[in-house]
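Q: what sequence does this backbone want?
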């Protein structure tokens, strides 16, 4: 199954809900990243050469789209968050930011005055303070890696609540970092609910809530500032900014929501963020369709029929069935639509990305690859030829550099068979 729906109504800053996230918050988050960068560079050798900046390349996708839709070949780009340092996925943006912000708040709450000088986080006193506290999270895997790696590096005890279908290699890697992994029968929703409840019982436990964390959201939102510079460097942002379609693999919606909010702040009604979800784990798309919006469907009808799946999917990072309330309140009306596909299409995209661009990602990260072709076709079929002709497309590759070679090869072999 492949389904696409679009809302092309103009939505800029005026439509952004500031009840939970304010414009000044994302500007403050940008400043916080800059203040933290020297400390992050000191802790993690892999970002020494960037001065502690955590960002990823922006790749042209000419080879891929010469094969998929040659008229798009010079207008599609791949945002390589699968190569983000430290945690190897888009979750590095939110998870690492949240961990360091919690550490700062904890220090100041215990009488240490940091005043924007975060070198104190490298001190023995910081280690002594943090080792008495737990950081906890419910996760399907990548957020757990982000929080587990950065939290342990600061000295926290980290506890991760995971459903039993989470990938074994992620559990093994977490345990190698000293993280306690607790597994639950059932799906992600059960793991996060129990994890949240257990954390509330412990006064020295901090639960980083994937469904409702402002800090995660703000960490993701700052990706838009880096992307703006990259687009400027490619001379893609002239006096008249072109329409920008962004394809964001989506679980509860935290990372897509944060990035969409940041991009709307910068580009206003010129950007069209789309969530990408597997058909067995539809969360945000369902909420968008139920929102009584003016939608264009790939089926050229006004109906969109699907049943709520069991949540099992090869795209394990997307295996959730309920959206984040924070994201839907702050960003729900800013999403321009959704793209829904089945596991075979996700795996085919993963293999195609390697065959034509020599990039290895985990399946969920490749799920948006065929979005630009489908959107381009839908725009032209519904009288939006001018947008189709001018638009650039950004496919967000959200994770995979930590995926073991054998696991990647098994996915690839499934396609080739």
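A:
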């Amino acid at each position: 199954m492949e389904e696409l729906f679009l809302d092309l109504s103009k939505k800029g800053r005026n439509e952004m809900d500031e009840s939970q996230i304010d414009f000044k918050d994302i500007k403050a988050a940008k400043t916080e990243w800059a203040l933290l960068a020297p400390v992050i560079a000191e802790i993690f050798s892999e970002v020494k050469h960037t001065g502690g900046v955590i960002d990823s390349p922006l790749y042209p996708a000419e080879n891929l789209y010469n094969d998929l839709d040659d008229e798009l070949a010079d207008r599609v780009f791949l945002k390589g968050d699968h190569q983000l340092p430290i945690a190897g996925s888009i979750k590095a943006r939110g998870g690492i930011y949240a961990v360091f912000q919690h550490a700062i708040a904890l220090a100041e709450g215990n009488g240490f005055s940091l005043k924007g000088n975060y070198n104190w986080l490298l001190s023995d006193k910081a280690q002594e303070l943090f080792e008495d506290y737990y950081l906890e999270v419910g996760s399907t895997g990548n957020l757990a890696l982000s929080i587990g790696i950065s939290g342990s590096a600061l000295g926290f005890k980290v506890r991760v609540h995971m459903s039993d279908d989470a990938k074994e290699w992620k559990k093994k890697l977490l345990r190698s970092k000293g993280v306690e992994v607790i597994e639950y029968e059932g799906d992600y929703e059960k793991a996060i609910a129990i994890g949240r409840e257990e954390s509330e019982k412990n006064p020295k436990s901090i639960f980083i809530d994937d469904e409702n964390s402002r800090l995660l959201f703000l960490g993701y939102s700052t990706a838009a500032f880096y992307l703006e510079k990259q687009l400027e460097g490619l001379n893609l942002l002239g006096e008249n900014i072109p329409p920008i379609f962004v394809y964001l693999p989506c679980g509860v919606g935290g990372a897509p929501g944060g990035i969409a909010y940041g991009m709307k702040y910068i580009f206003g009604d010129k950007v069209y963020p789309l969530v990408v979800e597997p058909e067995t784990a539809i969360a945000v798309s369902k909420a968008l369709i139920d929102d009584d919006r003016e939608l264009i469907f790939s089926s050229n009808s006004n109906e969109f029929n699907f049943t709520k799946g069991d949540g099992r999917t090869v795209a394990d990072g997307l295996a959730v069935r309920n959206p984040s309330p924070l994201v839907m309140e702050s960003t729900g009306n800013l999403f321009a639509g959704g793209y829904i596909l089945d596991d075979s299409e996700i795996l085919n995209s993963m293999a195609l990305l390697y065959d034509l661009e020599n990039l290895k990602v985990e399946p969920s990260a490749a799920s948006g690859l065929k979005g630009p072709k489908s959107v381009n076709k839908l725009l032209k079929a519904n009288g939006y030829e001018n947008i189709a002709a001018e638009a650039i497309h950004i496919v967000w590759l959200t994770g995979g550099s930590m995926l073991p070679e054998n696991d990647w090869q098994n996915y690839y072999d499934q396609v080739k068979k």
